[in-house]
Amino acid sequence: MGEKQSYATKIRTAVARAIAGLTFVCLSISARAQGNFIVNGGFDTSSVGWNANGIGPEGGYQSSGGNPGGYFLLSGPTTASVSHDVKVITGADYIVEGEYCSFGNSSVNPNFAVSVNNSLQFQIALPADSAWHRFSFVYNAANVVQQIPLTLSTGLSGTGGYVGVDNITMQLAPEPSTTVLFLAATSVACCYRKFRMNGRVA
After folding, report:
1. pLDDT by residue (tens digit) across 22-50?
2. How many CB atoms lie within 10 A of CB 32?
3. Nearest to 86 by CA among 42, 144, 23
4. 59, 160, 177, 196 - which has most CB atoms within 10 Å?
5. How far from chain centre, in Å, is Cα 70?
6. DSSP string covering 104-146, please?
């Protein structure tokens, strides 16, 4: 009887340690994927951390009118842009997201574009409304150095326009291993429950 209890105790301890270990790894990977690599992407109180280029006198940081709080207004006679240097992991996938808004554009072919490491990743004609719209894309940092620029711009095709940008984020994409480890932890827990129901583990 004592030997059976000892065996059962060992099984419970091993399973508990396996579940705890797998859970810790899953949470670690999940936290790693959730970190935002963009500093001050919300422009809440300033545009610190961003570098402006070609911005007209009406553009730049705006303390109100964002979604919510402040935002950055891209405006200029030709191409106007604002960029942020980002440290990346070579070969990793990143989810880049943010919001843009058209402010009374009457220019030719007004547009909004996003480039990463000087490579165009997203471009769209500006809508006629003045609502905030969301953009999102996945960027793979293959064959790049550790620090690269993320650039938001208007006027790449046609003349310049008035485009507000806000809530910019760049995060590591969730790795497939996160899902695999979660399923493994679930399987271990289910097997342990099955052993208990069959009376093999007290």
Report:
1. 443 343 444 344 589 999 999 999 999 99
2. 14
3. 144
4. 160
5. 20
6. S--SSS-EEEEEETTEEEEEEEPPSS-SEEEEEEEEE-TT--S
Q: Residue 11: how many CA atoms within 13 Å on its side-chain side?
A: 18
Work out the percent of the chain whose per-residue pLDDT is above 70: 64
Strand order in the sheet with 147-154: 51-53, 80-87, 147-154, 111-116, 119-125
N- to C-terminal Cα separation, the chain:
11
CB 71 within 8 A of CB 166: yes
**112, 126 in Cβ contact below 8 A?**
yes
pLDDT, position 23: 45
Q: Which residues pair with 72 in a beta bridge?
A: 61, 165
Please state, in angstroms and rounded to a whole number, the distance separating the CA atoms of residues 195 and 126: 60
Q: What is the β-pairing status of strands 80-87 and 71-75?
A: unpaired
Contact (Cβ atoms closer than 8 angstroms) between residue 113 and residue 158:
no
